[in-house]
Structures are given as structure tokens and as C-alpha cells.
Amino acid sequence: MNRVVVTSVAAITPIGNDVETSWQNLLAGKSGIGPITRFDPADFATQIAGEIKDFDPTVFINKKEARRMETFTQYAVCATKQLFENAGWTIPEEEKDRAGTIIGVGLGGLQSIEDMHAKLLKKGPGRISPFFIPILIANMAAGQVSIEAGAMGPNICTTTACASGTHAVGAAYTDIAIGRADVMICGGAESTITQLGVAGFNSMKALSVRNDEPELASRPFDADRSGFVMGEGAGLLLLESLDHAKARGAEILAEVVGFGASGDAYHMTAPPEDGAGMALAMTAAVREAKIDPSEIDHINAHGTSTKLNDLCETRAIKKVFGDHAYNIDICANKSQIGHLLGAAGGVESAFAVKTLVEGIIPGTINRDTPDPDCDLDVCADGPREKQVNYVLSNSFGFGGTNACILFKRFAD
User: Fold this and answer.
1) pTM over cut 0.70
2) Does the active-site annotation cover 312?
3) In this structure, is residue 40 part of a structural domain?
4) CB-hemisphere CA count at 13 Å for 261?
5) Full residue range of the structural domain in which residue 208 is found
């Protein structure tokens, strides 16, 4: 089996249009949640979201190509440009068949569906764009990233709801570990802050309606949490086999040492209250790394700010780690960026790698009133300077799908 390392990360988030800005704002405790501007939300129960600000795709993509991409694909392609800029590298012609792309997307082109359906009703089927289907399909992010990077290896989209991005990282890690590829671009992208998206989640009572205090609305593990806040963006990692990274003289940021996936086999949208499926995925990642659970010193939690998810994740962590759970520094990035759905695992994986490199664990904001049933240490007092050796990043999604990826501080 090949050892797998991370040699670059990139992110476009509600708190920054590149990974370094996002990281600095994360450490500063800045919230990216505000009033929805994409449409008039006056008639909606939820009127807030974590939107990307001041995003201009033509900085990285020519105007004609950008018009033929849904927003989630624009995010993925622009993040790819940044990923390779950060790496200071491009894929050589002779290596393109050994480089692949796996991008997680939860819902795909929801805005295009809304726009084209309105046009269909108003002007008839003859006015539907020939680019409609290619633009909206979820795998177009991976497809366009493959074109951009010249990656001719595996070209795959993972669509597993809110676990999509983490499943993508796990699948990419596996492909390199077993020798299917030497280099993989992986992570997640999403942009579903649309009328249908907000209305759909509102009908499920899943979103926070704390419209008068947007920056306080996402509050993972807090007793007063009342639902998640939708976000958008992209988070990507460049993975390579250790041998390939060394051969080209790459800077190695971290190592991927474990991946776990499981199913709840329980309910369409709700996890079982004991968090059994979540625990299985965490256990599998730790077992694959061949380490003792007591060696995990940081968890980047799924932490959605919903009543049931945060409770179940807390119980699952206790189930896996026992008393050691109280010694683990836990953070919930969604308190600041909202829930990026299919992109969440990609962005949170990028932040997990930054934690290993920088030796700083981000805080969790808005955890003002501790929930006695969510009594683990979620770094509510802010960022902590600490050398971290292992970071477990959790993602759980509708359909009872669970994914956990385990990163290690790199040591040759």
C-alpha cells in the first residue's frame, strides 16, 4: 500500500475567497452568515445564509466558459486554480493519466433547474438552453476540474448529501493507496442558496430562523441551537503518493492515514439517537490508521447546529473514545461558515490540514449556553495553540451516510 500525503489545499468560503483568508478569519472568530441577497427572502421563514462575497469567476475563468458553468462548478474550478498555485506545480503531460479528480457535490445545479423551469413555463420547451443538462449535473464539477487540470485518471462525483466532500477525499485517498493513481484532486463544491433550496429545508424545519441575529444563528452544541444555516463554497485537497511527492520535491502538509464509512440503516434524514452509525465510521478510520483511539487529539466535528445531530455526534464520540473523549479538542467550523452541504467535508478537511501545519485549533463560536447533553470540549473559548498529531474530520448526511477522514502530522 502506498502512503498518501496532502501537498496543497484550497478553499472558497463565506469567510474568504481563498484558503489563507478563510483560515485567518476562522481563527479570528469571524462569522460569514448574513442576510440572503441572491433572492428576496421576505416570504421565507429563513432569510439568512453563508453566501460567498465578492466572487468574480472571471479572475480565473474566461467569461464565455464561466457562463457555461453553474456556480458550484465555478467554485470548484477556481479552487483548483488556487490549489495548483498554492502547490507551485502543474501536472506534467506524461503524468496526466496517473492523475484524477473526485469532487463531492450534494445537490448540483439547483439554480439552473429553477431558472430553466421558469423559462419553460413562460416561453415553452424550444427556449431551453442546450447547455441546461451539462450545466446542472453534479459531476460537472469533477469534469470541469479534470479539464482544467488535465487530469485523465479517475473522474468521479460522490453524491452522498452532507458527507459528499469527505467521501470524495476518502475515495481519492483509497485510489492512491492501492495504486490506481499517483495524484488526486479531491474535496467538495456546492451552491444551493436558492428559493427551492431554502424552501425545501424550511419545510423540514431544518434551518435556523434566527433572522434578526444572523451571526449568532449557527450555534453547534449550544443549548439554544435551533437548526443549521446554509452555506456555499468549495474546499479541495491535492493528494499524492508519498513517493510521487518526494520525487518532485513537494512540500508535504500532512498525511492521510485512515478513512471510515458507514450507514445508519435507520431513517431518511435522522440519525439513531445513540449515534451508532457515526461511531462505526469513526472507529473504522482509527482502526485503518492502526492507532489507539487515545492518540486522537483533535476532531473537526460535523457539528451542524441541529438538535439531533449534535447530540448524536456527542454520543458517538463518547462511544468510540470513552473517557478520552473529554480530552479531545473539538471544533465546529459550521458555527462560522454555515453548513456547506456537499462542500462541507472538503472545506473542513482543508481546515484540518491547516491545523496540523499551523499548530492552531480553531474555536467554536456561539456556544454560549452549554447543553448538558453535549458536554465535550468544543473550544468555545476560542482558538488554541497546540501541536496536533491526529485530526479526525467527521461528515454525516441524509440517507444515513457517514464518512470520517483521519489526517496525521507528517513525519518522514
Assistant:
1) yes
2) no
3) yes
4) 15
5) 4-247
